[in-house]
Amino acid sequence: MKINVIGAGSMGIALSCFLLRKNEVVLTVKKGEKGFYDRGVVLREGDKEERFFVKVSEGTEDADITIIAVKSYDLAKVYEDYDLKGNVVLIQNGLTHIGIEKKGVNKIYAVTTWGSKKVAKGVAELTGRGYFRVGSKSVRIDLSFLKAVGINAEWVENIEEEIYRKAAINAVINPITALFGVKNGLVSSEPELWSIASQAIGELEVLFSKMGYHLEIEKNVIETCKVTAENTSSMLQDIQQGRRSEIDSITGEIISLGKKQGVEMGVNKFLYESVKFLQSHYKSAI
């Protein structure tokens, strides 16, 4: 199978390395950066490190499947800049990718708790393997290309519920870890942090219940904090490195849903505005 992977961030590199084991893969990178990958890409996991030589392009090629692994705020530009068609898998955090459409594209969502971080350009570290859930409202695909390379993917019928659940979990853990500079596990184990988390969860439960979803957010937040206790959230990594975070796609979109549904989102709004301030402060300081 031929697969385009757009985006050479940590998840794009990790997926490319796995898929390359049994497929033809084209990794699409930013213009002017192709030369950085002449010596291949590197994936670390635990105490293992492996170098892979993947075909790198500044465009896309005809392929059976295209996977877009860029940050949520870059997705619209990818849709604009590349000739996307056929089966396209979106693997973004947050909710903005729900509304984006393009003629000729069969939109497929992937929701995952795989953890990864970018070590350097072309070098990624896989920090954890969780679930990998895939679904679509317009098409159904065979997931054997993922399972064959060790990605334990499963097809789910109500993929939007999975997207909302993951967004709700991220809306609790990510802003709190970013604000207080802590790893995921402390969100549920430190009473002061859990007090904030519980209030945010309460608002989210009211919102999504009103929308017809029963997501068991508290249970899922606690479980996620437990299994990713030593992980540094992507939002905290972004803040520490002076990068733009995905707070708009996650909490910003949720606050917008709250306005539409008439649900007060005071704690989530506080978390949103605090991360926006911190993000601006770090950008100006670095």
Short description:
This protein has helices at residues 10-19, 75-81, 144-147, 159-180, 185-189, 191-210, 217-227, 234-240, 247-261, 266-285; strands at 2-6, 24-28, 41-45, 48-52, 55-57, 65-68, 86-90, 105-112, 115-120, 123-128, 132-135, 153-155. It is an alpha/beta fold and 286 residues long.
What is the topology?
Elements (H helix, E strand, L loop, with lengths): L1 E5 L3 H10 L4 E5 L12 E5 L2 E5 L2 E3 L7 E4 L6 H7 L4 E5 L14 E8 L2 E6 L2 E6 L3 E4 L8 H4 L5 E3 L3 H22 L4 H5 L1 H20 L6 H11 L6 H7 L6 H15 L4 H20 L1
Parallel strand pairs: 1-2, 1-6, 2-5, 3-10, 6-7, 7-8, 11-12
Antiparallel strand pairs: 3-4, 8-11, 9-10
Helix pairs in contact: 4-6, 4-7, 4-8, 4-9, 4-10, 9-10
Shape: globular
**Biggest sheet: strand arrangement:** 5-2-1-6-7-8-11-12
Rg, rounded, reads: 19 Å
Instruction: Work out the count of structural domains.
Output: 2
Helix content: 40-55%
| Name of the level-1 CATH class of the largest domain | Alpha Beta
Percent in strands = 15-25%
Named CATH architecture of the largest domain? 3-Layer(aba) Sandwich
Q: Which regions are unreliable across 5 or more consecutive residues at pLDDT < 50?
A: none
CATH-defined topology of the largest domain: Rossmann fold
